[in-house]
Amino acid sequence: MNLFDQGLLDTPFGWTAALLVGLAFGFWLERAGFGSSRKLAAIFYLRDFAVVRVMFTAVATAALGLVALDVAGLFDASRVYRMETLLGPQIVGGLLFGAGFVAGGWCPGTALVGAASGKLDALAFLAATLLGSLVYAAFWPQLAPLQDVGTCGVVTLPELLHLSSGAVAALVVAVALAAFTAIHRFAPRR
Amino acid sequence: MTGPVQPLSPQAQRYWNPYVAGFGLGLTLLLSFVALGVGLGASGSTARLAATAAHAVAPAAVEANGYLGPWFQGGSPLANYLVFMSLGTLVGGLVSALFARRVHVAVERGGRITPRARLVLAVAGGLLVGFASRMAAGCTSGQALTGSALLLGGSWAFLAAVFAGGFLVAPLVRKEWLP
Q1: Are both A145 and A179 inside the same structural domain?
Q2: I need a surface site. Which of A67, A123, B11, B124 has the fewest CB within 10 A?
Q3: pTM recorded for the entire structure
């Protein structure tokens, strides 16, 4: 049982729990160096691979951990909220997001940490994301039909690949390790 | 080629090993799944803040809007766990930066761009990211990190598209980030 499952996420207790999780989230982002737009943008010039290293370590850790807890009977992973696949909007949105990421130097989560570190470019970026979300809402009548392009409900890689969750999580770990090895071989050291 | 980016200030501590930080971030995400039943998020809170600000100026128009209107049916859109998570992210980042002596008020930029031009590009990027996060129903936290760990097809497609978009546009803003 978790707070979402019990309908308790949007209660004072759920808000407190979310605040505590957020504290850890912000701490680790800052420790990784993600309170720096120079460090974040450097991935797109292959100068600093921290974005890939941190991201794939985190994804592999959480994916494997979730499967392990589920197999051990400690936590029912099927009770976690899963987002629908909106293939069209997620590909087009992803491309626009990537363009904004390298031009702006931040994404929303890292910009919060950057702003906390005193970065004025992070504040400017955050203020503009507020405006960007309102622009999206303003064009909702025109955009709403496009949101349905490629909508196919909750789609998981285990379903697509006809493999178990454990096998796909192991595959994610293997791909991450292969990527880290390649980075270790080719990345600049200092 | 130059290596990993470190803080400019000599007093500031160096960033932690990326695998250590990634492991900590992964455990945080796992904790979020187990305790909250949802993953991490960031753009949802800023969109809700924007909706609240717009509502203060033009309540009728915002409530009539097909996208924002439903957020106001149960009271304030700020009464949402994502808003509290982002408050935590802000404070967690501040605490970490203070302990590592990495809090410095500055416009962060490469060596060959003026602060003003850097701020203009930060605003342009923020506009795109704010828009795109609503379109994709999440950002690098809610989709790329959370959805990928949940092995969701759409989130992996989003992650790939973010890197593709970033690498495609990177040559155009090269001067912004040159050391």
Answers
A1: no
A2: B11
A3: 0.97
